[in-house]
UniProtKB/TrEMBL annotation:
The modification 4-aspartylphosphate is found at D54. It holds the Pfam family GerE. The keyword Cell wall biogenesis/degradation does not apply. Residues 3-119 form the Response regulatory domain. SMART domains: HTH_LUXR (SM00421), REC (SM00448). This is Response regulator transcription factor. It comes from the Bacteria. Keywords: DNA-binding, Phosphoprotein.
Length: 201
């Protein structure tokens, strides 16, 4: 039996995933969690072999949690299940050393096959998405520029961003001006849209 952990914050979706996996004769769901910080301890205590993780989780995003699992519990494979089918998101997932990346709108049988594939040591990634990621452009923004843009996207003003990142307000404005220029955006809002659609935020 393949021991599986499911990390999904939407109860109906998590229940559907668990019910689907329980139909498989060789898969056992040994843990269910609804937030990022729960993943590592639950995977460890349940001796999970595969963690199916949604990217958009409260407390800690799925890619960060997947990276922690890779470092601290390398025997547990990670399968990202998401509705965010963007090349940039896939690139971030591969950087986090995930074992597989599957879209939520994939046919149900693909999930069980992906679980079996990652346990067998294969990397399971949607083919069309992999090609798109191959062709996509690397993020031109620095880590600091991304930090400033991310906080701006959460609704923080220049002064708040400056205080939280220990910068001056003028420096934050300069970062945002640089970001808009680098992304050939019309303004900050457009820069946020471009970064999100590219999977950089």
């Amino acid at each position: 039996m393949i021991r599986v952990l499911v990390a999904e914050d939407m109860h109906i979706v998590r229940g559907a995933l668990v019910a689907l996996l329980r139909l498989e004769p060789d898969i056992e769901v040994v843990a269910e969690v609804a937030s990022g910080p729960e993943i590592l301890p639950a995977a460890r205590s349940a001796a999970a072999e595969v963690a199916i993780i949604d990217i958009d989780l409260p407390g800690k995003d799925g890619l960060t949690a997947a990276g922690e699992l890779h470092e601290q519990l390398p025997g547990c494979r990670t399968l990202i299940l998401t509705s965010l089918g963007r090349p940039g998101t896939l690139r971030r997932a591969l950087d986090a050393k995930v074992s597989g990346f599957l879209l939520k709108d994939a046919p149900p049988d693909k999930l069980a096959n992906a679980v079996r594939g990652v346990v067998a040591g294969r990397r399971m990634v949607d083919g069309d998405l992999a090609l798109a990621a191959w062709d996509s452009v690397d993020c031109p923004l620095t880590v600091r520029e991304l930090d400033v843009l991310r906080m701006t996207s959460h609704g923080y003003g220049t002064v708040e961003v400056a205080a939280r990142l220990f910068l001056s307000a003028g420096t934050v404005r300069n970062y945002l001006t640089t970001v808009v220029a680098k992304l050939s955006a019309r303004n900050r809002v457009d820069a946020i849209r471009i970064a999100k659609e590219s999977g950089w935020l």
